Amino acid sequence: MTAGNRPSEPAVTPGGVASVNARPGSGYERDPARIYRGSFAIIRAEADLRAIPADLEPAAVRMIHACGMTDLPAHLAWSPGVGAAARRALAGGAPVLCDSAMVSAGITRSRLPAANPVICTLRDPRVPELAARLGTTRSAAAVELWRDNLGGSVVAIGNAPTALFRLLEMLEAGAPRPRPAAIIGVPVGFVGAAESKDALIARAGDVPHLTVRGRRGGSALAAAAVNALAGDPE
Questions:
Q1: DSSP E strands, the chain
Q2: How far apart are CA 152 and CA 204, in angstroms?
Q3: Closest Cα partner for 131 from 101, 155, 123, 188?
Q4: What is the pLDDT along the chain (234 residues), one digit of tens a residue?
Q5: Active site (catalytic) residues
Q6: What is the DSSP string of 114-183?
């Protein structure tokens, strides 16, 4: 047997979960509860959460769990009180506005505290014509259809930088009042993603917000943050 084919020894994690390179069907943890507990134990052992405020720590942990990157806290940026603001809004029945069906699908409805409506307008039949008329993406055009629900909402953008840019343009233009209760803006990608999140930090004004600097992001992170702020326990 060569060194490259030698089975590795089990590695015991903080949660007691053994990890081995073995034949399929042997040597791996099968107990869902142990896997779940072990995952969060590893996150808390490896991630530096000291700078994360208490109202945001559950969201940070959930977001790490969604992406597997324990260095994520170093890339998070937030405005003071965003976690508390999002929780209050959700407890009061605020809608969750999503830029993609993937964000919407990732939100655990049973955890929402007030049967909150989860709204994604991307597939609205009006969107293609609106995008053509505005000369923009469908994701950005879909944000136009949020206007009636935007005041007091929790916004979750995980896919499209253009959706976040358009939302900021709408807010700067004065629509609507009241403002969203909180914006979770974590679009992913290589064109415009980092820039849209920098714009959120610079231009959100008095709207509480949470983001991940740089190219990282995605629908799973946006949904994970909402689930945590809705009260989804570890």
A1: 11-12, 18-19, 76-78, 96-98, 118-120, 154-157, 182-185, 209-212
A2: 15
A3: 123
A4: 334 443 333 344 444 444 434 455 568 999 999 999 999 999 999 999 999 999 999 999 999 999 999 999 999 999 999 999 999 999 999 999 999 999 999 999 999 999 999 999 999 999 999 999 999 999 999 999 999 999 999 999 999 999 999 999 999 998 767 899 999 999 999 999 999 999 999 999 999 999 999 999 999 999 999 999 998 555
A5: 65
A6: T---EEE-TT-TTHHHHHHHHTS-HHHHHHHTTHHHHTT-EEEE-S-HHHHHHHHHHHHTT--SSPPSEE
Record the tokens describing residue 9, joined without a space.
């020894």
